[in-house]
Amino acid sequence: MKYNRILLKLSGESLQGEQKYGLSTEVLHSYAEQIREAVRSGVQIAVVIGGGNIFRGLQGARRGFDRVKGDQMGMLATIINSLALQSALEDNGVKARVLTSIRMEPIGEYYSKARALEYLEAGYVVIIGGGTSNPYFSTDSASALRGIEVEADAMFKGTRVDGIYTADPEKDPSAEKFDEITFDEVYRRNLKVMDLTAFTLCRENGLPIIVFDMDTPGNLARVLAGEKIGTVVKL
């Protein structure tokens, strides 16, 4: 399949690299280089990043934080990550804009579908921070929502694993990887691809999900070229 526009979901936790917390310059630049090559090939890219390397609302709630406040702190963490990726992209000669789901000028422009499409069509990478702006929704849900809104051809979920398996490959050496799987089979097998809200949004709106290992340099270009190195979830 030829992809004209994708929504790239990046894991906040992956941004910490070998560290236990925060941002790894090496990972940021590896991601920026991969995105640069994809943009040069003519693909429009919108990005949503998690905030787990800085603060995760659900973990905060378990430690006694009010859940709503915890989720809001997590939203701010995603904006810090968005600014870091924008900086890395610009260092690599890529035009990038941060749009935020919470009003936060001059840190980023307030998100709207029209503004996002305008930038995408002008050749910018659009990084959408702040989640959905609502508590109780994950950045997976934000990715699904934004992917549908900007009319992406697919959601590319870049993680530290190379696809979806029948079981956790780290715990079960006999686990087998899927090249392709349907949304219904993921439900049936109770596989943890992403949270159910996000997953259902993708299914109901026909947005395919491609799960792949973003931490191996060059993988984004390989997936875009049609190499079967991840797992495709489709109707």
Your description of this structure?
This protein is of the alpha/beta class and 235 residues long. It has one domain (5-234): Acetylglutamate kinase-like (Carbamate kinase, 3-Layer(aba) Sandwich), CATH 3.40.1160. 38% of the residues lie in helices and 20% in strands. It is built from 8 helices and 11 strands. The chain has helices at residues 25-40, 57-62, 67-91, 113-121, 139-149, 183-189, 196-204, 219-224, and strands spanning 5-10, 44-49, 96-100, 109-110, 125-129, 154-159, 164-165, 177-178, 180-182, 209-213, 231-234. A 9-stranded mixed β-sheet has the order 4-3-5-2-1-6-10-11-9, with helices on both faces. Helix 1 links the parallel strand 1 and strand 2. Helix 5 (139-149) runs parallel beside helix 7. It starts with a strand and ends with a strand. The mean pLDDT is 95.
Structural class: alpha/beta
Average predicted confidence as pLDDT: 95
Provide the CATH superfamily: Acetylglutamate kinase-like
Low-confidence stretches: none
Query: How large is the share of residues in beta strands?
Result: 15-25%
Distance between the termini: 15 Å
Query: Main β-sheet, in a few words?
Result: 9 strands, mixed
Strand order of the largest sheet: 4-3-5-2-1-6-10-11-9
In CATH, the architecture is 3-Layer(aba) Sandwich
- The number of helical runs is 8
- What is the total number of structural domains? 1
Shape: globular
Any idea of the CATH topology? Carbamate kinase
Radius of gyration: 17 Å
SSE succession: EHEHHEEHEHEEEEHHEHE
Instruction: Classify the helix fraction into a percent range.
Output: 25-40%
